[in-house]
């Protein structure tokens, strides 16, 4: 179940930053394809509230592709359930408003 949750996190992360990029482009504010650059611009435009949290999400997403340690998978799964789900939901609500 944990591994399935991490897989869903990966999909959600990809959709989140790409949807944010699209929204920034629609607003004429952005033309870059780097997730980190998208997050920084989204923070600058007040689309997201916590840039450091999103940078941690990026780091964890990158780790899920290369980590085979149970402890690290458990830590990422814990952050998904305790913080990231709410963060993704908050982004979705904000994107719907603008």
Describe this structure in words.
With 98 residues, the protein is an all-alpha fold. The protein has a single domain (2-97), classed as Up-down Bundle (Four Helix Bundle (Hemerythrin (Met), subunit A)), CATH 1.20.120.330. The chain is 79% helix and 0% strand. The protein is built from four helices and no strands. The chain has helices spanning 2-26, 35-44, 51-64, 70-97. The radius of gyration is 14 Å and the shape is elongated. The N and C termini lie far apart (35 Å).
What does the radius of gyration come to? 14 Å
Count of extended strands: 0
CATH class category name: Mainly Alpha
Name given to the CATH homologous superfamily: Nucleotidyltransferases  domain 2
Number of individual domains: 1
Low-confidence blocks of residues: none
CATH topology name: Four Helix Bundle (Hemerythrin (Met), subunit A)
Biggest sheet features: none
Series of secondary-structure elements, N-terminal to C-terminal: HHHH
Termini separation: 35 Å
Helix share, percent: over 70%
> Whole-number average pLDDT?
94
What spatial form do the alpha-carbon principal axes imply? Answer: elongated
> Pairing-aware structural class of the strands and helices?
mainly alpha
Beta-strand content estimate: under 5%
In the CATH hierarchy, the architecture is Up-down Bundle
Number of helices: 4
List keywords for this structure.
98 residues; mainly alpha; Four Helix Bundle (Hemerythrin (Met), subunit A); 79% helix
Topology:
Blueprint (H helix, E strand, L loop, with lengths): L1 H25 L8 H10 L6 H14 L5 H28 L1
């Amino acid at each position: 179940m944990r591994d399935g949750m991490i897989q869903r996190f990966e999909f959600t992360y990809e959709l989140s930053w790409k949807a944010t990029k699209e929204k920034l482009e629609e607003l004429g504010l952005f033309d870059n394809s780097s997730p980190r650059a998208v997050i920084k611009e989204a923070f600058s435009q007040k689309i997201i509230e916590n840039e450091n949290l999103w940078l941690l999400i990026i780091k964890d997403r990158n780790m899920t592709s290369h980590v085979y340690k149970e402890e690290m998978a458990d830590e990422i799964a814990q952050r998904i359930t305790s913080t990231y789900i709410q963060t993704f939901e908050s982004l979705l609500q904000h994107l719907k408003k603008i």
